[in-house]
């Protein structure tokens, strides 16, 4: 004879039973009992208890709508549980359609990452988010970037501890074959980065995956590891060779500058309300193009003259691609 459930186990069972019945919208007693690992009689007793449970109304007295209810004919004649009225459950906060869509987009992005090859859990969570929203969320689709395809072979090279080679296109548009020891893969926003020991420069360098091509994994063991080389948490570090640039940026956009404002950046409020002067350091003036393009109308390059000319020439070249 099975031991009776303890009070705590019984409470857990009852709390789990109601959502189960709501989700299944009709289930036979033996099937429900097998799902929870209880006897058929224990399941019938639990259903009868639920049918006299609820939450009192404003008058602190129970009215018919304040109690759970079931299809008694189906229960007594067919041994089938059909919940016809639920209380309190529907009063719980739900995601709005927009909130659910945003979360679903995030889950789609996660499911595209190589480390999430077993996507059953993510798919199950996506279905629950969609069904639990206050309204049907808008269909969303997140396409994986081309750089994401490089994450898997790079991670395999990291695990194997072997050297890699690839063509790398710099921000200036120059392309060069690089031979590196991979040390770490990082992501920031939508961009992936490889941090590696560059044998050509005898130093640690950070490479954007979307600028890499013709990747080759060698069988040559790496000569530098993460234990040999200090890797800071921030992706980009200033160096004595960096160039100083003075910019004017909207106060609201200042937090969006990210690694363009490393530790030690000098900022001061400008004379015009809502704008801030910032002195930043960049590896080369061509790096300002991405900064200006990402914050159109919010960043102005003030100096030096070479930096202003580089950005202005780039903008004119872009405009020349459009018809008059």
Number of strands: 13
The structural domain count equals 4
- H/E order of the elements? HEHHEHEEHHHEEEEEEEEHEH
> Overall mean pLDDT score?
75
Distance between the termini: 88 Å
Number of helix segments? 9
CATH class of the largest domain: Mainly Alpha
Low-pLDDT residue intervals, each spanning 5 or more residues: none
CATH architecture of the largest domain, please?
Orthogonal Bundle
In spatial order, strands of the major sheet run 8-7-6-5-9
CATH topology name of the largest domain, in short, is Arc Repressor Mutant, subunit A
**Biggest pleated sheet:** 5 strands, antiparallel
Pfam family, one: HTH_PafC
Organism: Amnibacterium flavum
Protein name: WYL domain-containing protein
Kindly describe this structure.
- With 324 residues, the protein is of the alpha+beta class.
- It has 4 domains: 7-91, Arc Repressor Mutant, subunit A, CATH 1.10.10; 94-144; 148-221, SH3 type barrels (Roll), CATH 2.30.30; 243-319, Alpha-Beta Plaits (2-Layer Sandwich), CATH 3.30.70.
- It has helices spanning 7-24, 29-36, 40-50, 72-78, 97-111, 120-132, 151-160, 287-294, 305-319, and strands at residues 27-28, 69-70, 80-81, 83-85, 162-169, 175-188, 191-198, 203-208, 212-221, 243-250, 266-269, 275-282, 299-303.
- The strands form 4 sheets. It has a 5-stranded antiparallel β-sheet. It has a 4-stranded antiparallel β-sheet with strand order 11-12-10-13, with helices on one face.
- Helix 5 runs antiparallel to helix 6.
- The longest helix has 18 residues, at 7-24.
């Amino acid at each position: 004879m099975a031991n009776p459930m303890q009070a705590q186990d019984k409470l857990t069972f009852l709390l789990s039973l109601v959502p189960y019945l709501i989700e299944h919208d009709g289930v036979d007693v033996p099937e429900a009992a097998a799902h929870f690992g209880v006897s058929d009689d224990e399941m019938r007793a639990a259903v009868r208890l639920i049918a006299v449970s609820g939450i009192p109304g404003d008058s602190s007295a129970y009215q018919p709508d304040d109690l759970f209810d079931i299809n008694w004919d189906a229960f007594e004649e067919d041994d089938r549980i059909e919940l016809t009225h639920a209380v309190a459950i529907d009063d719980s906060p739900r995601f709005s359609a927009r909130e659910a869509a945003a979360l679903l987009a995030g889950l789609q992005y996660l499911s595209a990452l190589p480390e999430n090859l077993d996507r059953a859990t993510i798919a199950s969570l996506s279905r629950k988010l969609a069904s639990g929203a206050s309204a049907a969320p808008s269909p969303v689709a997140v396409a994986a970037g081309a750089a994401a395809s490089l994450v898997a072979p790079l991670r395999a090279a990291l695990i194997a501890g072997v050297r890699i080679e690839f063509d790398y296109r710099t921000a200036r548009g120059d392309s060069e074959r690089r031979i590196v020891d991979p040390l770490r893969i990082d992501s920031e926003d939508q961009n992936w980065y490889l941090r590696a020991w560059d044998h050509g420069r005898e130093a640690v360098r950070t490479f954007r995956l979307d600028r890499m091509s013709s990747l080759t994994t060698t069988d040559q063991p790496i000569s530098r590891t993460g234990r040999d080389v200090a890797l800071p948490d921030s992706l980009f570090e200033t160096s004595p060779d960096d160039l100083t640039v003075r910019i004017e940026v909207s106060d609201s956009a200042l937090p969006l500058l990210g690694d363009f404002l490393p530790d030690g950046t000098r900022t001061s409020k400008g004379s015009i309300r809502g704008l801030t002067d910032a002195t930043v350091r960049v590896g080369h003036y061509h790096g300002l193009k991405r900064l200006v393009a990402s914050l159109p109308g919010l960043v102005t390059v003030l100096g030096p003259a070479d930096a202003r000319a580089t950005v202005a020439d780039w903008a004119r070249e872009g405009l020349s691609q459009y018809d008059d």
